[in-house]
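User: Show me a protein chain along with its predicted structure.
Assistant: Here is one chain, sequence first, then structure tokens.
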Amino acid sequence: MSLRIDQDHRRFREIVRGKIKQNLRKYITQGEMLGKKGKEVVSIPLPQIDIPHFRFGPKQTGGVGQGDGDPGDALGQGEPQPGTGKAGDTPGEHLLEVDITMEELAQILGEELQLPRIEPKGKQRIVSKKDRYTGIRQTGPESLKHFRRTFKQALKRQIASGTYNPKNPIIVPVREDKRYRSWRTDPLPQSNAVIIYMMDVSGSMGDEQKEIVRIESFWIDTWLRSQYQGIDSRYIIHDAMAKEVDRETFFRTRESGGTMISSAYKLCSKLIEEEYPPSEWNIYPFHFSDGDNWSVDDTVTCIELLKTNILPKVNLFCYGQVESPYGSGQFIKDLQEHFDDKGTLTTSEIKGKEAIMDSIREFLGKGK
């Protein structure tokens, strides 16, 4: 019985996984999961799944199983016609909320978008230490005393010395009988990564554009966290000036004024230089803007910062241009003119929520 329950549960999870995968674009577009995100689990509404159950109709009304009927006849009374039903006193059918781990969600995202596993570049590894119990020794703290080995040693000693009485089997360990767990400290390499999110919050970036950034950042974060043991996330907002903020401020800030993109790139470069040496960290800057910059001179400064200070140190630099009725959209053209998309820098035009899924594929499809 237990085996059959496990098989049924496994089959149900496969059905759920298939439904999530089938409707992934809808979830990404609508951002249904963002508000439900817990520490490791997210709840997803799945209205498409019909859990098997019995439906009972009125007695003695005919039909399959009750009197006459033909093969293929539908159970119950059929579907009610719109507008012909009366007010009832029974509960309706509700959405099925299914819990799924963030790791499973990342796997589904990777399968659907055909994202390759990320290979950490160079020797970007931070080494931590882990104690592992490996054997037994005769000395140690009482908290690590191995009771079974101690008892066995005392029994062997008493049998060898002839003091063991099978009719009165009392085993009294002495100091020489005590055995303790021994351990060794092993280095534990961890692939670590930092994601540096940058967003233009000038007057031309409205609430719709910021919502697109928020949804896309959630899925980028979900995938990268499935690839690394340790993730740092840093957030930079900018208009004519740049500043580092926390996650909530990043997504809720309403600013106005002009745009100077180089201010964000300078702050990003400073963070990398002071806190994230490329020899120890995998670095992923993501910049979102509507493509409107202050001047041609500032764009030249941005390109120089990318070439000399940022791109040589990062795994991947991603620029996402969110379409806005107020932005010029010129910046992505300037980047594409100076950089090859096959290199470390990747660009993506995000014309609306429907384009988020394709943008994620463009960013993460290189496996860097």
